[in-house]
Amino acid sequence: MSTVLMGSADVDPHAEHGYLCCPDCGLLQKLPRTGIRGLNTYCGRCGATLERTRGRSINAALAMCLSALFLLLPMNLLPFLTVDIFGVHHTSIVYSGIAGIAAQGWPVVAVILALELIILPFFRFGFLATVLLGIYHDYHHPHLGKLFRWSERLDQWAMPDVFLIGCVIGYGRVAPFLPISIGIGGYCVLAVSFLTLLTRASLDRREIWRRIGPCCQHLEEGVEYVGCPFCGLPHPKAEAEGQPCRRCGERVWRYRPDTGIRVLALTLAGFFCYPFAYLYPMESNYQLGSLQGYTIMTGVHKLIQANFYVFAAIIFLASVLTPFLKLFGLSWFLISIHGHSQRWLRGKTMLFRVIRQIGRWSHIDVFTVAVFLPLMHLSGLLAVYVGKALPFFLAVVVITMFATEIFDPRLLWQKVDEQQEQDESVFVNTASAES
């Protein structure tokens, strides 16, 4: 095994090394000693971040999480935007836009948005706060690992930070034409969004997993190990495959079964919905007896005409390029796995991490419609209607997010693993570290 240079990082001489299977490529690796601050550790094969301690603090994450959980209630109940149209007063709260979408005949879309904006953020921060409080008080409960796993999964689906961008764009589209003001709920949306980002940035996830336990400090000779696809804890393959992880409860597989066929079905469904999302109007505006539809590209063009170049770029990247990149990437992965390709494996794994992180931001256009739908309403004179493209577009976004969650990137490295297993019985690398 190679020696890792720690630079100027602070090292606890009594701390122990640990072993971890990279969740992205499955490589069994020896991590640097625990208790090191200011150190980032990366997978020696695919470059995935295995541990990041620089700027991380469990106590800070707990404070941010509790603050966000406290502000979720006023964020959902208080008006965040207010408009006066010819003396008629309209306010927009989170629920009003969702209710308006349901009232126009799209209940499934409304349910999805209600989950992402109202319900799941409470579960996300509630589970995370429970875990961090348990760690803070050194309380060991067998379900802490499962709660932390669910809080991390829900992080992709709880979207106050994405909703903030939708609010900003909605405000920018209405402000030049109508008197609009920001309410207390708007400042709560801003606060919760930043607290969401700060909580995510301050979480020392590997340290949390170590505190929850158990950890793998030693390997038995002649035993083949398989890693948990979520937390990376190594397990003896003969005993653990198909069984729940001892730490987080996720099913342990060398390669997740039936991943290819399920991801293929979801990808094909995404390709089916994709053209309808751009051919049909995303919304229709009724003004003084005239009904005009706006597709996603029309909306981008209107923003450019209004000199909102930044908003136009955000919508184009989030609503046009990102869904295409996700569908293209998933298709490339499936073709590579089917053809046992060993080319650009590191690049493919990096692309998978990118589409896993950016996929949720495609909700911006949907949230923008939900924001100003309650504001733009004056009986017989002004109204906004949900277009046929919105459910198709939301379907593309949600389907590709599910496909990314289901996909097992370790399948990309299967052929390499098989060749290495033929060459040596035990393959353990030392993870690379930067201080």
What would a concise description of this structure say?
By secondary structure, this protein is α+β, with helices and mostly antiparallel strands. It has helices at 58-77, 94-103, 107-136, 144-154, 160-174, 184-202, 205-212, 237-240, 259-279, 296-305, 309-338, 345-358, 364-372, 389-406, 414-423, and strands at 18-21, 28-31, 40-42, 49-52, 81-85, 88-92, 180-182, 225-227, 234-236, 283-287, 290-294, 382-386, 429-430, 432-434. The strands form five sheets. Strands 1-2-13 form a three-stranded mixed β-sheet, with no helix packed on it. A three-stranded antiparallel β-sheet has the order 4-3-14. A three-stranded antiparallel β-sheet has the order 6-5-7.
Structure write-up:
The protein has helices spanning 58-77, 94-103, 107-136, 144-154, 160-174, 184-202, 205-212, 237-240, 259-279, 296-305, 309-338, 345-358, 364-372, 389-406, 414-423; strands at residues 18-21, 28-31, 40-42, 49-52, 81-85, 88-92, 180-182, 225-227, 234-236, 283-287, 290-294, 382-386, 429-430, 432-434. It folds into three domains: 1-54 and 214-254, no CATH class; 57-203, Butyryl-CoA Dehydrogenase, subunit A, domain 3, CATH 1.20.140; 258-418, no CATH class. The protein is 53% helix and 12% strand. It has 15 helices and 14 strands. InterPro entries: PqiA-like, PqiA-PqiB_transport. Keywords: Cell inner membrane, Cell membrane, Membrane, Transmembrane, Transmembrane helix. It is found in: Cell inner membrane. The chain crosses the membrane at residues 60-81, 93-112, 118-136, 180-201, 261-280, 308-337, 382-403.
